[in-house]
Amino acid sequence: MKKITIAIDGFSSCGKSTMAKDLAREIGYIYIDSGAMYRAVTLYSIENGIFTGTAIDTETLKQRINDIQISFQLNPATGRPDTYLNGVNVEDKIRSMEVSNKVSPISTLGFVRQEMVKQQQAMGERKGIVMDGRDIGTTVFPDAELKVFVTASAEIRAQRRYDELKAKGQEASYEEILANVKQRDDIDQNREVSPLRKAEDALLLDNSHLTIEEQRDWLREKFQSVVNPD
Ligand SMILES: Nc1ncnc2c1ncn2[C@@H]1O[C@H](COP(=O)(O)OP(=O)(O)O)[C@@H](O)[C@H]1O
Ligand SMILES: Nc1ccn([C@@H]2O[C@H](COP(=O)(O)OP(=O)(O)O)[C@@H](O)[C@H]2O)c(=O)n1
Question: How far is the CA of 21 from the centre of ligand 1 (A)?
Fold first, then answer.
């Protein structure tokens, strides 16, 4: 069967990667979490003294951007890909609140986006890919055959993230997560380069009141209607 490209964009913590990963596994496509790539650049910046307090040393980051190697490897225990930064598994570290608080400013930088988009497009060259993020349907794969834009209320999204961190045994404050979700949405929607917005041809999904299973079924049905239109 001919392979297609699937772009899933939307607001933070609404379930994009959950549905994207599940679909990719079911249909045998590659799954790429583009947010993990921006998070890895952010972690690198924190660990190398490039992002201190609220200041980013953009000149140093620009010089080092080609030394930042990001890759994904399937974790057999979870059945999902883990993120590697220069050969080190950083899957847990990139999900910390410190990285969440710093990732949106890093993602406004044009040279960072240019490098990430280049790598993402190379990963999707042969199609058969599900990628989730903020600009996949608008910038990375504007010709994707299936585009979805996911949203849910900020409170519901913060609660989902809170439950997730709690389940992993990480310290978390619902109020802090809600503030972070709102702040990232604001920065992501208002940045100059590739702001978060729904592509005109993207299908809108508000999953505020859908279960994980319901949204999985919804996405599978949309996929089927693209690959088997009759
Ligand atoms: N429809 C849903 N109902 C309840 N929880 C959900 C739903 N979709 C996803 N989740 C949970 O919400 C959290 C955030 O989902 P995730 O897929 O990481 O979001 P995103 O990729 O948009 O940031 C995860 O813990 C996930 O299990
Ligand atoms: N394609 C993308 C993906 C993420 N990002 C940035 O990376 C951040 C983290 O993305 P993410 O997908 O991991 O965020 P969550 O919704 O999973 O918390 C976003 O808030 C954006 O600032 C982006 O600018 N473009």
Answer: 11
Beta pairing partners, 205? 150
Ligand 2 atom 1 nearest Cα: 133
Give the CATH number for residue 22.
Answer: 3.40.50.300
**Please, which pLDDT band fits residue 82 given cuts at 50, 70 and 90?**
very high
Collapsing DSSP to helix, strand or coil, 191 comes out as coil
Q: Is the ipTM of this complex over 0.90?
A: yes
Q: Ligand 1 atom closest to Cα of 215?
A: 1
Question: Which element (helix H / strand E) includes 192?
Answer: none
Range of the domain at 160: 5-207
Report yes or no on 172 lying in a domain.
yes
- Output the pTM of the full model: 0.96
Tell me whether residue 218 is in a domain. no
For the chain, how many structural domains are there in total?
1
Residue 220 lies in a domain: no
Are the C-beta atoms of 102 and 42 separated by less than 8 Å? Answer: yes
Whole-number Å distance between alpha carbons of 203 and 200: 9
